[in-house]
Amino acid sequence: MSLRQHRRGGIAAAALAAGLSLVLLGCTSGHASSSPASSGQAAPRHAAGPAGFTWFRPGSPPAAWLRAGLPGQHAALFYPNSLRPMPGDHGTVTVGRNSRSGTVLVYLNVTPRQGDETLRDWPGFRVAHLRDDGTTGVHLDSVSPSLRFHGGQGRCVIDTYTTKIHSNHYQEIACFVQGTHAASVLVAATSTGTWRAYQPLLDQVVSSYQAG
User: Fold this and answer.
1) The model's pTM
2) d(CA 186, CA 164)
3) Is the pLDDT of residue 24 over 60?
4) H helices within 9-69, ranges in order?
5) 7, 89, 147, 181: which has the fewest C-beta neighbours closer than 10 Å?
6) 128-153 as b/e, with b when 16 or more CB fall inside 10 Å?
7) Residues in contact with 152: Cβ distance below 8 Å, sequence separation at least 6, in sequence order
8) Other CB atoms closer than 10 Å to residue 51's CB: what's the count?
9) Is 76 in contact with 210 (CB distance < 8 Å)?
10) Cα within 13 Å of Cα(169), Cβ side
């Protein structure tokens, strides 16, 4: 699911229409404690991922993190308690955090496989999906080879795009993950302006994801 779809799934239109341009002032106080570097929690010690995804280190999440299971699957999203469940489409998991003004600071979403996407065609599938959803300026920043997640294999892209309405600029890590029993799509996003501040958190969320 994209952030634009999430608007239709229940988040107040005004909150999302405002975009993420004002959240930079809240980054340091709002989420600094969520990243491994600032919380004192060591990152899992596993071999680093391939070039472009050297941050990918599949491992257990910090002990204090919460778990949200995808309905009907073994897939699970782990996240810090600074984030909260958010409204979303039925059968999906959406977690994030808004600023006091209602703008989105962090957006995490897990959706069961709903199309014919595969590990092989995931990069092209994700770009086409974003464009079909009305976004513009879609750009692939990085594409991974196959990655070993807990319980399965996955493939991820890092991309940027601009929403048609209000021209909000987002950057995301979007992964297709094939587990033993089912496949799912994981999206971890923030604005392009706050990407550097939140990327360590998003990286750790993706690395700790449990396949279905």
Assistant:
1) 0.79
2) 22
3) no
4) 13-17, 27-31, 36-39
5) 181
6) ebbeebebeebeeeebbeebebbbbe
7) 177, 178, 179, 180, 211, 212
8) 9
9) yes
10) 9
